[in-house]
Amino acid sequence: MRKAVTRRRPRTQARLLEAALRVFADRGLYAATIEDICNEAGFTRGAFYSNFRTKDELFVALFDHHGQRLIERMEALVDEAEAAEAVDRVLAYLSDPDEYERRWFLVSSEFTLYAIRNRQAAEVLAEHDRLLREALVRLLEKVFARLGRRPTADLDELARLLVAIAEGATAQSYVEPVALPHGRLHRTFIPGLLHAFSTPASDAEPLPAQPGRSG
């Protein structure tokens, strides 16, 4: 019996996460109740508490799930594409958000506003963002290697800049979908940024200046 319960648990967690995203997006992060989530998932409160201690713990798990989903998809696109097409494939994916991503944007935006007001929530969000940036840095290293280029900027800061562009552009596109279709700013500016903050890997490193010598 224990093995059967263990096998069911990941499926139960997945259904709770899917239901929570729908409920949070429709009713608001803090207006939604555990009862709402259980009803949406078709579970009892007992099923909820056997997987998550609190609604906040569920939300953190939702953050982690989305970050892993996003990174895994982008890594697969980079690995599957020809070197010259890798960036375009990722940008095409980011330029076509589905209903899941729309809901996630609503929920994550609400939590970000809450985190600005609440120090404990800010620490949770900062840790999540740090882990996501670490994964983005690894992806950027792979992209630059595939392109035969060497980054000239700090990759953590470059990851921050790319996230800021992506999130800001996405917000504008949800508000003005006709004037600014999803992905237009991504496709227009991100390739140029990657090129501007890198150099061909074959370029020789400049020699350091020698003490006591003038040009």
TrEMBL record:
Pfam short name (any one): TetR_C_6
PROSITE patterns for the chain: HTH_TETR_2 (PS50977)
Annotated SUPFAM superfamilies: Homeodomain-like (SSF46689), Tetracyclin repressor-like, C-terminal domain (SSF48498)
Domain of life: Bacteria
GO molecular function, one term: transcription cis-regulatory region binding
Keyword Transferase tagged: no
DNA-binding stretch(es), residue numbering of this chain: 33-52
Alphabetized UniProt keyword annotations: DNA-binding, Repressor, Transcription, Transcription regulation
Coiled-coil spans in chain: none
Domain HTH tetR-type: 10-70
InterPro entries: BetI_C, Homeodomain-like_sf, HTH-type_TetR-like_transc_reg, HTH_TetR, Tet_transcr_reg_TetR-rel_C_sf
Protein name: AcrR family transcriptional regulator
Organism in which the protein naturally occurs: Allostreptomyces psammosilenae
